Amino acid sequence: MIISRIKVGLLLLLMSLLLCSLLEGCTPGRSDFDKKMRAIIKPYHFSIVKWELNTLGEEVAKVFSGGQKSADDSINEVKKYFTNVEQIKALQSQIEAIKTGDRQGDLTSLEDKLSKLQQQNLEAACTVERLLETQIREELSRQGIFNPIYKYVGWEISFPPVNFFLGSPPHLLVVSPRDRIESIREVTLLPEMSLEDMKSVEAEIDKLGVSSLVVNLGGLATYPSYVIDTADLRFVLNTAGEEWVHQYLAFKPLGFLYILDLIGIRRNYEIATMNETVAGMVSKEIGALIYEKYYDGSAADGTEPEVKELGFDFNLEMREIRRAVDDYLAQGKIELAEEFMEQKRQYLAENGYHIRKLNQAYFAFHGTYADKPTSISPIGVEMKELRSRSVSLKEFLETAASLTSRQELAESVKP
């Protein structure tokens, strides 16, 4: 048992170092543009290497740690944790409203309640992480999904273990050209950035002749994966599973090509879209199964409902905006495209959907998820067709992971 744990600990170390080198490779390069961008983001740059080194000891220690609480006690603690999350968000809203003068209330009492709930969740986080990791790992096992690396190292383990950290993920700076929608740079920035900081960075980057956006991330495929601690249980399950699937794919053709895209060796936006779409689809299925089994008891397929209120169809509206923007850009009408996006951003806000900044970088980031309304890529439809033809989730994942181009995907779903 001790030897087995040492092996897993060593593999965790190797996995973390590998991801450090890959993800840190996404930082700006040596071109004139990159030098200028690096100077702008320097005060806010988030070093994944430093974070990994600071976190690694705690994560390896998990391998050697002793007993756990009973399953029932742990599940109850998970439920309490996410109940607290909702109460924390409600209290923060009330406190902010009192501070801005929009409402009255006992600020001291509310802040005291908030502090106690945050402390409870801080103490419970490790238990929540470990139980959800176990549940995801067991569901992957039931589906017959194991990371392919274990075949090569000759040890009977599934590697890497599902491992995530609940916290505040870094922000992500996304840069797109103005004349087309495509992510050409992605750089991690500090989690502590204020809205003013984000706007300042974007304004300076935009002066370099590009479109930029600082994104709030829900998760990041470091090792352990970073998962936001202010989301609900369904989101955390889906995100933790999605980051593990990215780690799985890294050892397959599709994921390897995505790594080449991330580090700038071989840019391929379609490969990035395929990778993100597969990871999202698989993780939603896994998350839905876990949620149904342990936390809800009712059917749940992990898909997002259509957002339609009072006759306003947000998903349809976003797809139409994206198509119109692509048409403008194809005609070289960059300024008209940008004016149109700002007009539509205001229109969406009037209908209750507030997007801070709608630009090329926004669509470049969100468009890589082909099953989202912000994408008009046929990759989402093709991936769903591939899933419907697969007899199991395992078969779908293995088939998708072996793809090396959008053309191969299209060929695989021909009638």
Brief sketch in words of this structure:
The chain has a domain at 214-226 and 234-412. The protein contains 16 helices and 8 strands.
Q: What would you say this structure looks like, in words?
A:
This protein is mostly helical and 415 residues long. It has a domain at 214-226 and 234-412. The chain is 61% helix and 8% strand. The protein contains 16 helices and eight strands. The protein has helices at 2-24, 32-41, 48-64, 71-99, 107-142, 149-153, 195-206, 233-249, 253-262, 269-296, 314-330, 334-350, 360-366, 379-389, 393-401, 406-412; strands at residues 164-167, 171-177, 185-189, 210-216, 219-220, 225-228, 308-309, 312-313. The strands form three sheets. A three-stranded mixed sheet has the order 1-6-5. Strands 3-2-4 form a three-stranded antiparallel sheet. A hairpin with a 7-residue loop joins strand 2 (171-177) and strand 3. Helix 4 runs antiparallel to helix 5 and helix 8 crosses helix 10. The longest helix is centred in the N-terminal third of the chain and has 36 residues, at 107-142. The radius of gyration is 22 Å and the shape is globular. Mean pLDDT is 84; it is low at 1-14 and 298-309.
